C-alpha cells in the first residue's frame, strides 16, 4: 500500500494517489475509497478504485493544510485500512480505527517583503488589550456513547460543555448526527442529556451508576 502526494501550482491543493497493491486487497472484488472528503458515501461510484496490473489505484485532489480520515471498502469482504497511512485515529465504532492522510506538514511559501523608508511615527501611548477569554469546553467523551469524532461534531455545533449538552433536546442531537452523515445515525443520544446533567453537577458516582446500566449510551 502507498500514499503518494504531489503538489502543483500555488500549492493550495495536493493530488493524493491511494494504492492498494496486488494481494493486499482482501479479494478480487471492486474496492471503494471512502473518507471525510466524500462524506463516507458508500453509493458514490466516482470513488471506486481503478484496477491496474492487479493493484487498485485512485487519485483525488485534496485541500492542503488538513488531515483526512479514510478507509477502503471491498464490495464482498468489507472495510480495511491502509497499512501505509500517515496515522490512525479511533472511529465512532468501538475498537475500530480510521486511516489518516496528513496534508498539514507541507512547508509554507515565504512571502517577499519589500523594504520601504518609513516616516517616524508620532509617539502614542499603547493601549493594553485584554486577552480574549478562552471558551469553556468539557470532555464530552466522559458521556457514554460519545467518542472523539462525535465530541468534535457537537463542539462545532456549540454544544461543547456538559451544561449545554444537558440542555439540548434529544431531537436536536439526532438532527446533528443525521446532518453529520449516515455513519453517525446509528448512535442513540437518548441518555446523553441526563448523563451530562450529572456530569455538570459533579455527581460522578451517580453518573457511573447510570452508565453501568447503559449499553453504548443507550
TrEMBL record:
Which protein are we looking at? Putative flap endonuclease-1-like 5' DNA nuclease
Q: What are the recorded GO MF terms, alphabetically? A: endonuclease activity; hydrolase activity, hydrolyzing O-glycosyl compounds; nucleotide binding
* Species of provenance: Maribacter spongiicola
Which residue ranges does the record assign to the Glycoside hydrolase family 13 N-terminal domain?
25-86
Query: Which keywords accompany this UniProt record?
Result: Endonuclease, Hydrolase, Nuclease
Picking any one GO biological process from the record gives: carbohydrate metabolic process
Q: What's the domain of life for this entry?
A: Bacteria
What InterPro entries is this protein classified in? DNA_repair_Rad51/TF_NusA_a-hlx (IPR010995), Glyco_hydro_13_N (IPR004193), Ig-like_fold (IPR013783), Ig_E-set (IPR014756)
Amino acid at each position: 500500500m502507498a500514499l503518494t502526494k504531489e503538489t502543483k501550482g500555488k500549492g493550495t491543493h495536493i493530488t493524493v494517489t491511494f494504492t492498494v497493491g496486488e494481494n493486499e486487497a482482501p479479494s478480487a472484488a471492486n474496492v471503494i475509497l471512502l473518507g471525510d472528503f466524500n462524506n463516507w458515501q458508500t453509493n458514490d461510484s466516482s470513488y471506486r478504485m481503478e484496477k491496474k496490473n492487479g493493484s487498485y489505484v485512485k487519485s483525488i485532489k485534496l485541500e492542503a493544510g488538513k488531515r483526512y480520515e479514510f478507509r477502503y471498502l471491498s464490495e464482498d469482504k468489507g472495510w480495511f485500512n491502509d497499512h501505509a497511512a500517515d496515522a490512525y485515529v479511533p472511529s465512532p465504532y468501538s475498537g475500530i480505527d480510521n486511516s489518516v492522510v496528513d496534508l498539514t506538514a507541507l512547508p509554507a511559501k515565504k512571502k517577499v517583503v519589500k523594504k520601504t523608508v518609513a516616516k517616524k511615527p508620532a509617539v502614542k501611548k499603547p493601549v493594553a488589550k485584554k486577552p480574549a477569554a478562552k471558551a469553556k469546553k468539557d470532555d464530552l467523551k466522559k458521556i457514554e456513547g460519545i467518542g472523539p469524532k462525535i465530541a468534535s461534531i457537537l463542539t462545532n455545533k456549540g454544544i461543547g460543555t456538559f451544561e449545554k449538552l444537558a440542555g439540548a433536546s434529544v431531537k436536536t442531537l439526532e438532527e446533528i448526527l443525521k446532518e453529520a452523515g449516515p455513519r453517525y445515525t446509528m448512535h442513540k443520544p437518548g441518555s446523553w442529556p441526563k448523563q451530562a446533567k450529572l456530569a455538570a453537577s459533579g455527581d460522578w458516582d451517580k453518573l457511573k451508576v447510570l452508565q453501568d446500566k447503559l449499553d453504548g449510551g443507550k
